[in-house]
Amino acid sequence: MNDLNKFLKETDKLIRKNKELQKLRNGKEYIESIKTGNIDALVINDEDSLKVYTEKTADKTYRILIEKMNEAAVTLNEDGTILYCNVSFANMVKLPLQKVLGTMFKDFVDHAIKERFEDFLKQSMGKTMKEEGYIYSNDGIAIPVLMSVNNFSADNTFILSIILTDLTIHNKNQEELKDRAQELEEKNRDLSTANEEILALNKNLEKRVYERTLQLENLNHELKDLNLSKDKFLSVISHDLRNPLTALLIASDALSQDTHNPVFDGMQPFIKIINNTSHNILNQLNELVDWAQKQREKTSLKPEKIQLIFNIDVSLELLKPNARQKNIVLKNEVGYDIYVKVDILMLRSILQNLVTNSIKYTPDGGSITVTARSINNMIEISVTDTGTGMNEVTRKKLFTNSHVASVSGTNNEKGTGLGLILVKDFVTQHGGTIRVESKIGKGTSIIFTVPG
Protein backbone atom coordinates (compact mmCIF):
# COMPACT_ATOMS: atom_id res chain seq x y z
CA MET A 1 0.00 0.00 0.00
CA ASN A 2 2.80 2.27 0.83
CA ASP A 3 4.44 1.48 -2.49
CA LEU A 4 1.21 2.31 -4.32
CA ASN A 5 0.86 5.67 -2.62
CA LYS A 6 4.47 6.36 -3.33
CA PHE A 7 3.94 5.46 -7.01
CA LEU A 8 0.89 7.72 -7.26
CA LYS A 9 2.72 10.61 -5.71
CA GLU A 10 5.61 10.13 -8.10
CA THR A 11 3.19 9.89 -11.01
CA ASP A 12 1.38 13.09 -9.96
CA LYS A 13 4.68 14.84 -9.59
CA LEU A 14 5.73 13.76 -13.08
CA ILE A 15 2.43 14.97 -14.53
CA ARG A 16 2.90 18.39 -12.97
CA LYS A 17 6.45 18.60 -14.23
CA ASN A 18 5.27 17.52 -17.67
CA LYS A 19 2.68 20.35 -17.71
CA GLU A 20 5.32 22.86 -16.68
CA LEU A 21 7.63 21.57 -19.38
CA GLN A 22 4.81 21.81 -21.89
CA LYS A 23 4.20 25.43 -20.92
CA LEU A 24 7.88 26.17 -21.26
CA ARG A 25 7.94 24.43 -24.66
CA ASN A 26 4.95 26.46 -25.83
CA GLY A 27 6.46 29.66 -24.52
CA LYS A 28 9.73 28.84 -26.27
CA GLU A 29 7.81 28.26 -29.54
CA TYR A 30 5.95 31.57 -29.14
CA ILE A 31 9.16 33.47 -28.40
CA GLU A 32 10.96 31.82 -31.32
CA SER A 33 8.09 32.68 -33.69
CA ILE A 34 8.06 36.28 -32.52
CA LYS A 35 11.85 36.51 -32.95
CA THR A 36 11.74 35.16 -36.51
CA GLY A 37 8.93 37.61 -37.46
CA ASN A 38 6.48 34.88 -38.46
CA ILE A 39 3.83 36.09 -35.98
CA ASP A 40 2.81 39.07 -33.87
CA ALA A 41 2.02 38.43 -30.24
CA LEU A 42 0.44 40.09 -27.22
CA VAL A 43 1.01 38.79 -23.65
CA ILE A 44 -1.87 39.25 -21.21
CA ASN A 45 -1.40 38.69 -17.44
CA ASP A 46 -4.24 36.30 -16.47
CA GLU A 47 -5.19 35.20 -12.93
CA ASP A 48 -3.41 31.88 -13.23
CA SER A 49 -0.87 32.48 -15.96
CA LEU A 50 0.30 34.65 -18.86
CA LYS A 51 -1.84 34.42 -22.00
CA VAL A 52 -0.04 34.87 -25.33
CA TYR A 53 -2.17 35.77 -28.36
CA THR A 54 -0.49 35.07 -31.67
CA GLU A 55 -1.10 35.09 -35.43
CA LYS A 56 0.73 32.10 -36.74
CA THR A 57 -0.15 32.75 -40.41
CA ALA A 58 0.27 36.53 -40.53
CA ASP A 59 0.76 37.86 -44.03
CA LYS A 60 3.29 40.65 -44.36
CA THR A 61 1.49 42.46 -47.22
CA TYR A 62 -1.78 42.35 -45.32
CA ARG A 63 -0.04 43.69 -42.22
CA ILE A 64 1.44 46.61 -44.18
CA LEU A 65 -1.99 47.37 -45.63
CA ILE A 66 -3.57 47.46 -42.17
CA GLU A 67 -0.76 49.59 -40.77
CA LYS A 68 -0.87 52.14 -43.57
CA MET A 69 -4.65 52.45 -44.04
CA ASN A 70 -6.38 55.71 -43.09
CA GLU A 71 -9.13 53.93 -41.17
CA ALA A 72 -8.45 52.91 -37.59
CA ALA A 73 -8.19 49.11 -37.10
CA VAL A 74 -8.53 47.34 -33.73
CA THR A 75 -8.55 43.66 -32.69
CA LEU A 76 -10.13 42.61 -29.34
CA ASN A 77 -10.52 39.40 -27.35
CA GLU A 78 -13.79 38.18 -25.89
CA ASP A 79 -13.71 40.54 -22.91
CA GLY A 80 -12.96 43.65 -25.02
CA THR A 81 -9.23 43.91 -24.41
CA ILE A 82 -7.32 45.53 -27.28
CA LEU A 83 -4.95 42.89 -28.64
CA TYR A 84 -3.88 44.96 -31.67
CA CYS A 85 -4.41 48.40 -33.21
CA ASN A 86 -2.83 50.24 -36.09
CA VAL A 87 -1.20 53.69 -36.02
CA SER A 88 -4.40 55.38 -37.26
CA PHE A 89 -6.30 54.27 -34.13
CA ALA A 90 -3.44 55.36 -31.86
CA ASN A 91 -3.44 58.77 -33.58
CA MET A 92 -7.23 58.98 -33.25
CA VAL A 93 -7.12 58.51 -29.47
CA LYS A 94 -3.87 60.52 -29.20
CA LEU A 95 -1.88 57.88 -27.34
CA PRO A 96 1.34 56.03 -28.14
CA LEU A 97 0.70 52.64 -29.72
CA GLN A 98 2.23 50.70 -26.80
CA LYS A 99 -0.10 52.43 -24.33
CA VAL A 100 -3.18 51.45 -26.30
CA LEU A 101 -2.44 47.71 -26.48
CA GLY A 102 -3.85 45.78 -23.52
CA THR A 103 -6.40 48.49 -22.61
CA MET A 104 -10.18 48.06 -22.66
CA PHE A 105 -11.81 49.23 -25.88
CA LYS A 106 -14.95 50.39 -24.04
CA ASP A 107 -12.87 53.07 -22.29
CA PHE A 108 -12.61 54.92 -25.61
CA VAL A 109 -16.25 54.85 -26.75
CA ASP A 110 -19.37 56.83 -25.80
CA HIS A 111 -22.21 55.37 -23.76
CA ALA A 112 -24.46 54.50 -26.72
CA ILE A 113 -21.75 52.47 -28.48
CA LYS A 114 -20.69 50.89 -25.21
CA GLU A 115 -24.17 49.39 -24.65
CA ARG A 116 -24.43 48.14 -28.24
CA PHE A 117 -20.89 46.74 -28.02
CA GLU A 118 -21.60 44.81 -24.80
CA ASP A 119 -24.74 43.34 -26.42
CA PHE A 120 -22.69 42.38 -29.44
CA LEU A 121 -20.17 40.48 -27.30
CA LYS A 122 -23.00 38.23 -26.11
CA GLN A 123 -24.05 37.31 -29.65
CA SER A 124 -23.03 34.12 -31.42
CA MET A 125 -20.09 33.82 -33.76
CA GLY A 126 -20.23 35.19 -37.29
CA LYS A 127 -22.34 38.25 -36.47
CA THR A 128 -21.52 41.74 -37.70
CA MET A 129 -22.42 45.23 -36.51
CA LYS A 130 -22.27 48.73 -37.94
CA GLU A 131 -22.84 51.68 -35.66
CA GLU A 132 -22.24 55.42 -35.68
CA GLY A 133 -21.03 57.01 -32.49
CA TYR A 134 -18.10 58.78 -30.90
CA ILE A 135 -14.56 57.76 -29.93
CA TYR A 136 -12.97 59.86 -27.19
CA SER A 137 -9.31 60.79 -27.49
CA ASN A 138 -6.97 61.05 -24.54
CA ASP A 139 -7.62 64.81 -24.28
CA GLY A 140 -11.41 64.30 -24.13
CA ILE A 141 -12.31 65.32 -27.69
CA ALA A 142 -15.24 63.36 -29.16
CA ILE A 143 -14.57 62.09 -32.69
CA PRO A 144 -17.56 60.95 -34.80
CA VAL A 145 -16.93 57.49 -36.29
CA LEU A 146 -18.60 54.71 -38.23
CA MET A 147 -17.72 51.45 -36.42
CA SER A 148 -17.79 48.13 -38.34
CA VAL A 149 -17.39 45.06 -36.11
CA ASN A 150 -16.89 41.42 -37.13
CA ASN A 151 -16.33 38.45 -34.75
CA PHE A 152 -14.59 35.22 -35.60
CA SER A 153 -12.51 32.43 -34.07
CA ALA A 154 -8.72 32.11 -34.48
CA ASP A 155 -6.92 29.14 -32.86
CA ASN A 156 -10.07 28.42 -30.85
CA THR A 157 -9.94 31.98 -29.53
CA PHE A 158 -12.82 34.50 -29.81
CA ILE A 159 -11.58 37.56 -31.72
CA LEU A 160 -13.32 40.84 -32.69
CA SER A 161 -12.09 42.88 -35.65
CA ILE A 162 -13.14 46.56 -35.69
CA ILE A 163 -12.67 49.16 -38.41
CA LEU A 164 -13.40 52.78 -37.43
CA THR A 165 -13.93 55.47 -40.08
CA ASP A 166 -13.50 59.09 -39.00
CA LEU A 167 -16.71 60.94 -39.96
CA THR A 168 -15.45 64.42 -39.04
CA ILE A 169 -14.83 65.53 -42.64
CA HIS A 170 -17.86 63.56 -43.87
CA ASN A 171 -20.14 65.26 -41.33
CA LYS A 172 -18.61 68.62 -42.13
CA ASN A 173 -19.27 68.02 -45.83
CA GLN A 174 -22.80 66.96 -45.04
CA GLU A 175 -23.37 70.17 -43.08
CA GLU A 176 -21.91 72.21 -45.93
CA LEU A 177 -24.13 70.36 -48.40
CA LYS A 178 -27.11 71.04 -46.19
CA ASP A 179 -26.23 74.73 -45.95
CA ARG A 180 -25.64 74.81 -49.71
CA ALA A 181 -29.00 73.15 -50.31
CA GLN A 182 -30.67 75.78 -48.13
CA GLU A 183 -28.88 78.54 -50.06
CA LEU A 184 -29.96 77.01 -53.36
CA GLU A 185 -33.51 76.73 -52.10
CA GLU A 186 -33.48 80.41 -51.11
CA LYS A 187 -32.00 81.35 -54.48
CA ASN A 188 -34.63 79.26 -56.23
CA ARG A 189 -37.30 81.14 -54.32
CA ASP A 190 -35.66 84.42 -55.30
CA LEU A 191 -35.48 83.27 -58.93
CA SER A 192 -39.10 82.22 -58.82
CA THR A 193 -40.05 85.66 -57.50
CA ALA A 194 -37.87 87.33 -60.15
CA ASN A 195 -39.46 85.18 -62.87
CA GLU A 196 -42.90 86.23 -61.73
CA GLU A 197 -41.82 89.87 -61.85
CA ILE A 198 -40.31 89.38 -65.33
CA LEU A 199 -43.51 87.71 -66.52
CA ALA A 200 -45.51 90.64 -65.20
CA LEU A 201 -43.13 93.10 -66.89
CA ASN A 202 -43.31 91.12 -70.15
CA LYS A 203 -47.09 91.21 -70.09
CA ASN A 204 -47.00 94.95 -69.48
CA LEU A 205 -44.37 95.37 -72.23
CA GLU A 206 -46.39 93.25 -74.67
CA LYS A 207 -49.42 95.40 -73.94
CA ARG A 208 -47.44 98.60 -74.53
CA VAL A 209 -45.86 97.20 -77.71
CA TYR A 210 -49.30 96.23 -78.98
CA GLU A 211 -50.66 99.69 -78.24
CA ARG A 212 -47.60 101.30 -79.84
CA THR A 213 -47.94 99.06 -82.90
CA LEU A 214 -51.54 100.19 -83.32
CA GLN A 215 -50.44 103.80 -83.06
CA LEU A 216 -47.72 103.26 -85.67
CA GLU A 217 -50.15 101.53 -88.00
CA ASN A 218 -52.52 104.47 -87.67
CA LEU A 219 -49.63 106.87 -88.35
CA ASN A 220 -48.62 104.83 -91.39
CA HIS A 221 -52.15 105.11 -92.79
CA GLU A 222 -52.08 108.86 -92.16
CA LEU A 223 -48.66 109.15 -93.84
CA LYS A 224 -49.91 107.23 -96.86
CA ASP A 225 -52.86 109.58 -97.12
CA LEU A 226 -50.53 112.58 -96.79
CA ASN A 227 -48.23 111.18 -99.49
CA LEU A 228 -51.18 110.75 -101.81
CA SER A 229 -52.22 114.34 -101.13
CA LYS A 230 -48.66 115.53 -101.70
CA ASP A 231 -48.42 113.61 -105.00
CA LYS A 232 -51.68 115.18 -106.14
CA PHE A 233 -50.37 118.60 -105.11
CA LEU A 234 -47.11 118.08 -107.04
CA SER A 235 -49.11 116.94 -110.05
CA VAL A 236 -51.12 120.17 -109.92
CA ILE A 237 -47.93 122.26 -109.65
CA SER A 238 -46.05 120.43 -112.38
CA HIS A 239 -48.94 120.37 -114.87
CA ASP A 240 -51.58 123.00 -114.13
CA LEU A 241 -49.11 125.78 -113.20
CA ARG A 242 -46.32 125.03 -115.64
CA ASN A 243 -48.55 125.26 -118.72
CA PRO A 244 -49.88 128.80 -118.18
CA LEU A 245 -46.46 129.93 -116.95
CA THR A 246 -44.82 128.56 -120.12
CA ALA A 247 -47.39 130.46 -122.23
CA LEU A 248 -46.55 133.64 -120.33
CA LEU A 249 -42.82 133.09 -120.94
CA ILE A 250 -43.35 132.57 -124.69
CA ALA A 251 -45.45 135.75 -124.96
CA SER A 252 -43.01 137.85 -122.93
CA ASP A 253 -40.05 136.48 -124.94
CA ALA A 254 -41.80 137.50 -128.21
CA LEU A 255 -42.62 140.99 -126.89
CA SER A 256 -39.09 141.56 -125.57
CA GLN A 257 -37.61 140.67 -128.99
CA ASP A 258 -39.97 142.98 -130.95
CA THR A 259 -37.76 146.05 -130.59
CA HIS A 260 -38.59 147.56 -134.03
CA ASN A 261 -42.23 148.32 -133.19
CA PRO A 262 -42.34 151.84 -131.71
CA VAL A 263 -45.58 150.92 -129.93
CA PHE A 264 -43.57 148.87 -127.42
CA ASP A 265 -40.77 151.38 -126.86
CA GLY A 266 -42.10 152.60 -123.52
CA MET A 267 -43.20 149.12 -122.51
CA GLN A 268 -39.85 147.30 -123.04
CA PRO A 269 -38.63 147.71 -119.42
CA PHE A 270 -41.88 146.28 -118.09
CA ILE A 271 -41.85 143.46 -120.65
CA LYS A 272 -38.32 142.53 -119.46
CA ILE A 273 -39.48 142.52 -115.84
CA ILE A 274 -42.39 140.23 -116.75
CA ASN A 275 -40.03 137.95 -118.71
CA ASN A 276 -37.36 137.79 -115.98
CA THR A 277 -39.92 137.25 -113.26
CA SER A 278 -41.58 134.47 -115.27
CA HIS A 279 -38.19 132.78 -115.71
CA ASN A 280 -37.48 133.01 -111.96
CA ILE A 281 -40.90 131.62 -111.08
CA LEU A 282 -40.44 128.71 -113.49
CA ASN A 283 -36.96 128.00 -112.11
CA GLN A 284 -38.28 128.01 -108.55
CA LEU A 285 -41.21 125.83 -109.56
CA ASN A 286 -38.89 123.31 -111.25
CA GLU A 287 -36.62 123.42 -108.21
CA LEU A 288 -39.50 122.70 -105.85
CA VAL A 289 -40.81 119.80 -107.92
CA ASP A 290 -37.30 118.38 -108.38
CA TRP A 291 -36.54 118.55 -104.66
CA ALA A 292 -39.83 116.90 -103.71
CA GLN A 293 -39.24 114.16 -106.27
CA LYS A 294 -35.74 113.50 -104.94
CA GLN A 295 -37.00 113.33 -101.37
CA ARG A 296 -39.58 110.73 -102.40
CA GLU A 297 -37.36 108.56 -104.56
CA LYS A 298 -33.94 109.19 -102.96
CA THR A 299 -32.09 109.03 -106.27
CA SER A 300 -29.41 106.33 -106.27
CA LEU A 301 -25.79 107.30 -106.84
CA LYS A 302 -24.12 106.43 -110.18
CA PRO A 303 -20.53 107.66 -109.74
CA GLU A 304 -17.93 107.81 -112.54
CA LYS A 305 -14.44 109.29 -112.89
CA ILE A 306 -14.55 112.66 -114.71
CA GLN A 307 -12.30 115.68 -115.35
CA LEU A 308 -13.77 118.42 -113.18
CA ILE A 309 -12.94 121.56 -115.22
CA PHE A 310 -15.03 120.61 -118.29
CA ASN A 311 -18.13 119.72 -116.25
CA ILE A 312 -17.92 123.03 -114.42
CA ASP A 313 -17.77 124.79 -117.82
CA VAL A 314 -21.02 123.06 -118.82
CA SER A 315 -22.81 124.23 -115.68
CA LEU A 316 -21.52 127.81 -115.92
CA GLU A 317 -22.45 128.05 -119.61
CA LEU A 318 -26.08 127.33 -118.74
CA LEU A 319 -26.08 130.13 -116.14
CA LYS A 320 -24.32 132.86 -118.17
CA PRO A 321 -27.61 134.42 -119.41
CA ASN A 322 -28.73 134.94 -115.81
CA ALA A 323 -25.33 136.37 -114.86
CA ARG A 324 -25.27 138.79 -117.84
CA GLN A 325 -28.50 140.41 -116.67
CA LYS A 326 -26.52 141.68 -113.64
CA ASN A 327 -23.16 142.00 -115.43
CA ILE A 328 -21.71 139.28 -113.19
CA VAL A 329 -18.55 137.48 -114.37
CA LEU A 330 -18.45 133.66 -113.91
CA LYS A 331 -14.90 132.27 -113.49
CA ASN A 332 -13.72 128.65 -113.69
CA GLU A 333 -10.26 128.43 -112.03
CA VAL A 334 -10.15 124.63 -111.59
CA GLY A 335 -6.94 122.91 -112.75
CA TYR A 336 -6.86 120.40 -115.60
CA ASP A 337 -5.31 117.78 -113.26
CA ILE A 338 -8.34 117.60 -110.92
CA TYR A 339 -10.53 114.51 -111.33
CA VAL A 340 -13.56 113.54 -109.27
CA LYS A 341 -15.60 110.34 -108.89
CA VAL A 342 -19.20 111.56 -108.82
CA ASP A 343 -22.69 111.21 -110.21
CA ILE A 344 -22.51 113.76 -113.07
CA LEU A 345 -26.16 114.83 -112.85
CA MET A 346 -25.91 115.35 -109.09
CA LEU A 347 -22.68 117.33 -109.43
CA ARG A 348 -24.25 119.64 -112.04
CA SER A 349 -27.30 120.11 -109.83
CA ILE A 350 -25.02 121.04 -106.91
CA LEU A 351 -23.01 123.55 -108.98
CA GLN A 352 -26.03 125.12 -110.69
CA ASN A 353 -27.88 125.58 -107.39
CA LEU A 354 -24.84 127.13 -105.69
CA VAL A 355 -23.95 129.43 -108.61
CA THR A 356 -27.62 130.46 -109.10
CA ASN A 357 -27.77 131.30 -105.39
CA SER A 358 -24.57 133.37 -105.68
CA ILE A 359 -25.97 135.28 -108.72
CA LYS A 360 -29.06 136.07 -106.67
CA TYR A 361 -27.08 137.69 -103.81
CA THR A 362 -24.30 139.30 -105.87
CA PRO A 363 -24.87 142.93 -106.98
CA ASP A 364 -24.35 144.21 -110.53
CA GLY A 365 -20.73 144.09 -111.68
CA GLY A 366 -19.70 141.35 -109.20
CA SER A 367 -18.00 138.02 -109.82
CA ILE A 368 -18.41 134.33 -108.93
CA THR A 369 -15.36 132.03 -108.94
CA VAL A 370 -15.17 128.22 -108.79
CA THR A 371 -11.91 126.67 -107.51
CA ALA A 372 -10.84 123.16 -106.43
CA ARG A 373 -7.99 121.44 -104.61
CA SER A 374 -7.09 117.92 -103.48
CA ILE A 375 -7.21 117.09 -99.75
CA ASN A 376 -6.29 113.49 -98.87
CA ASN A 377 -8.67 111.30 -100.91
CA MET A 378 -11.26 114.05 -101.39
CA ILE A 379 -11.58 117.04 -103.74
CA GLU A 380 -12.60 120.32 -102.09
CA ILE A 381 -14.65 122.58 -104.43
CA SER A 382 -15.36 126.23 -103.54
CA VAL A 383 -17.98 128.58 -105.02
CA THR A 384 -17.00 132.11 -103.96
CA ASP A 385 -18.94 135.32 -104.72
CA THR A 386 -18.52 139.04 -104.06
CA GLY A 387 -22.08 139.31 -102.80
CA THR A 388 -23.80 140.72 -99.76
CA GLY A 389 -22.71 137.95 -97.37
CA MET A 390 -24.75 136.76 -94.40
CA ASN A 391 -24.84 136.86 -90.61
CA GLU A 392 -24.06 133.92 -88.26
CA VAL A 393 -27.71 133.02 -87.61
CA THR A 394 -28.49 132.75 -91.35
CA ARG A 395 -25.27 130.79 -91.98
CA LYS A 396 -26.17 128.13 -89.37
CA LYS A 397 -29.68 127.65 -90.80
CA LEU A 398 -28.61 127.66 -94.45
CA PHE A 399 -28.94 123.92 -95.12
CA THR A 400 -31.90 123.18 -92.82
CA ASN A 401 -35.64 122.97 -93.40
CA SER A 402 -36.06 126.05 -91.21
CA HIS A 403 -34.48 128.13 -94.01
CA VAL A 404 -37.02 127.31 -96.71
CA ALA A 405 -38.20 130.93 -96.77
CA SER A 406 -35.10 132.62 -98.14
CA VAL A 407 -34.06 136.28 -98.24
CA SER A 408 -34.70 138.32 -101.43
CA GLY A 409 -31.74 138.85 -103.78
CA THR A 410 -30.03 142.11 -104.76
CA ASN A 411 -32.61 142.67 -107.54
CA ASN A 412 -35.42 141.50 -105.28
CA GLU A 413 -35.19 137.94 -106.68
CA LYS A 414 -37.30 135.43 -104.75
CA GLY A 415 -36.41 131.86 -103.81
CA THR A 416 -37.62 128.96 -101.68
CA GLY A 417 -34.27 127.95 -100.15
CA LEU A 418 -35.00 124.34 -101.08
CA GLY A 419 -32.15 124.23 -103.61
CA LEU A 420 -29.53 124.40 -100.82
CA ILE A 421 -31.22 121.53 -98.92
CA LEU A 422 -31.02 119.47 -102.10
CA VAL A 423 -27.33 120.42 -102.46
CA LYS A 424 -26.51 119.18 -98.95
CA ASP A 425 -28.39 115.92 -99.58
CA PHE A 426 -26.43 115.25 -102.81
CA VAL A 427 -23.08 116.08 -101.16
CA THR A 428 -23.87 113.77 -98.22
CA GLN A 429 -24.78 110.94 -100.60
CA HIS A 430 -21.25 111.25 -102.03
CA GLY A 431 -19.77 110.91 -98.53
CA GLY A 432 -18.70 114.56 -98.54
CA THR A 433 -19.17 117.58 -96.30
CA ILE A 434 -20.34 121.13 -96.90
CA ARG A 435 -19.67 124.38 -95.02
CA VAL A 436 -20.09 128.13 -95.42
CA GLU A 437 -17.66 131.01 -94.87
CA SER A 438 -19.26 134.45 -95.06
CA LYS A 439 -19.09 138.02 -93.77
CA ILE A 440 -21.65 140.77 -94.21
CA GLY A 441 -20.67 142.92 -97.21
CA LYS A 442 -17.62 140.71 -97.96
CA GLY A 443 -19.19 137.91 -99.97
CA THR A 444 -19.70 134.19 -99.35
CA SER A 445 -17.80 130.95 -100.03
CA ILE A 446 -19.64 127.64 -100.03
CA ILE A 447 -17.16 124.78 -99.81
CA PHE A 448 -18.03 121.10 -100.34
CA THR A 449 -16.09 117.87 -100.84
CA VAL A 450 -16.56 114.89 -103.16
CA PRO A 451 -14.43 111.76 -103.72
CA GLY A 452 -11.32 112.18 -105.88
Structure characterization notes:
The chain is α+β, with helices and mostly antiparallel strands. It is 53% helix and 21% strand. A 5-stranded antiparallel beta sheet has the order 4-3-7-6-5. A hairpin with a 5-residue loop joins strand 5 and strand 6 (142-154). It is rod-shaped, with a radius of gyration of 59 Å. Mean pLDDT is 78; it is low at 33-39.
In short:
The chain has eleven helices and 14 strands. The protein has helices at residues 2-36, 60-68, 87-93, 97-100, 111-121, 168-257, 268-297, 308-324, 344-360, 392-397, 418-429; strands spanning 41-45, 50-54, 72-76, 82-85, 128-136, 142-154, 157-166, 304-307, 329-332, 339-342, 367-375, 378-385, 434-439, 443-451. Helix 7 packs parallel to helix 11 (418-429) and helix 8 (308-324) runs parallel beside helix 9.
Topology:
Elements (H helix, E strand, L loop, with lengths): L1 H35 L4 E5 L4 E5 L5 H9 L3 E5 L5 E4 L1 H7 L3 H4 L10 H11 L6 E9 L5 E13 L2 E10 L1 H90 L10 H30 L6 E4 H17 L4 E4 L6 E4 L1 H17 L6 E9 L2 E8 L6 H6 L20 H12 L4 E6 L3 E9 L1
